[in-house]
Amino acid sequence: MKKLSEYVVLAFVFSWTVAAVYRFLGGRVDDPAFVAVAVVYMFGPLVSVSVVQIRRGERVAPAVGARISLSPWLVVAWLTPAVVALLAVAFAVAHPDGGLVTSAATVVESYGPSFSAERAASMTRRLRGVPLSFVVGSILVTGLIAGATVNAVAAFGEEAGWRGLMLYELSDESFWHASALIGLTWGVWHIPLVVQGYNYPSAPVVGIFAMVAFTLLATPPLNYVRLKAGTIVAPSTFHGTVNATASVSVVAVGGVSRLVTGAGVAAMAGLATVNVVMVVYDRRKGEGVTSSRLSESLDV
Questions:
Q1: CA–CA separation, 162 vs 168, rounded Å?
Q2: Which of 24, 98, 118, 238 has the most Cβ atoms closer than 10 angstroms to its Cβ?
Q3: What is the pLDDT of residue 69?
Q4: Mean pLDDT of the chain, nearest integer
Q5: Residue 105 has pLDDT above 60, yes or no
Q6: Alpha-carbon span 219 to 71, nearest angstrom
Q7: HEC string of the chain?
Q8: How far apart are CA 88 and CA 96, in angstroms?
Q9: In this protein, which residues make up the domain named CAAX prenyl protease 2/Lysostaphin resistance protein A-like (predicted)?
């Protein structure tokens, strides 16, 4: 448990310092440089795991579950986020104020303060006359490609800690208890970005609680594919694809805030659905992954 505590402290110090310095220098979430800063922030867990392992004279790769696997669960991890994105659209449309956007040119309005006035005007001009279905389809296709490649690499920076070292250190815990601890820690770790307007630009304070709820719901499926595939590549792909396809509901649904679309309650409802399907599948297969200790399923 000492190793786990050291890892968590280092991960928070590294990432929160990156966010604080960026903010101190006047950086904003709508600045082009934010993407690069966010990637550096995401690598805080990997850096922290590396420091913890190296100072103990232990290897880094085994601690994060970095191994080759050709498991079909890699495909499940890759495609499930796209299903969540489409479910989020359905749940967002079901909101009393929600409705499908009829023109691709109006999707920019859904992003609110995430875009500067100049960028918003430029995007609106380029999208005029483009079918919304084309935009949504493009996001899904490019999101799936990015999710399994560049986004997966960036997500590995986080997953090395949350579904890597932290999962191993909690191997004596039950699946759900470990998921709750990881999900809560992961959500709180996002606070410096959320308060700057990341994911929930119109509600940075309420967004903190929304992000924690989102990570709590996302963690069980991420843990499950990690355990089933036997490699950190699975949750990295899942995480990267979630990040790449989350904007589908933002683009497709109007009349509601980002607390509903994106990483909002609609996506949370989609993740809750995935959790239910996961438990039903696990019970029908009789494998007991979700009803046992992590050590019974984890490659320790």
A1: 9
A2: 238
A3: 82
A4: 90
A5: no
A6: 20
A7: CHHHHHHHHHHHHHHHHHHHHHHHCCCCCCCCCHHHHHHHHHCHHHHHHHHHHHHCCCCCHHHHCCCCCCCCHHHHHHHHHHHHHHHHHHHHHCCCCCEECCCHHHHHHHCHHHCCHHHHHHHHHHHCCCCHHHHHHHHHHHHHHHHCCHHHHHHHHHHHHHHHHHHHHCCCCEHHHHHHHHHHHHHHHCHHHHCCCCCCCCCHHHHHHHHHHHHHHHHHHHHHHHHHHCCCHHHHHHHHHHHHHCHHHHHHEECCCCCCCCCCHHHHHHHHHHHHHHHHHHHHHCCCHHHCEHHHCCCC
A8: 15
A9: 145-244
Distance CA 181, CA 98 (A): 33
For residues 158-174, average pLDDT: 95
Whole-number Å distance between alpha carbons of 197 and 164 = 28
pLDDT, one tens digit per residue, over 60-102 is 999 888 888 889 999 999 999 999 999 999 999 999 888 887 6
pLDDT digits over 185-224, tens only? 999 999 999 999 898 988 999 999 999 999 999 999 999 9
Alpha-carbon distance of 13 to 192, in angstroms, equals 11
Asked if residue 112 has pLDDT above 60, the reply is no
* CB half-sphere exposure, 13, CA atoms < 13 A: 10
Residue given tokens 């932290």 in the structure block: 166
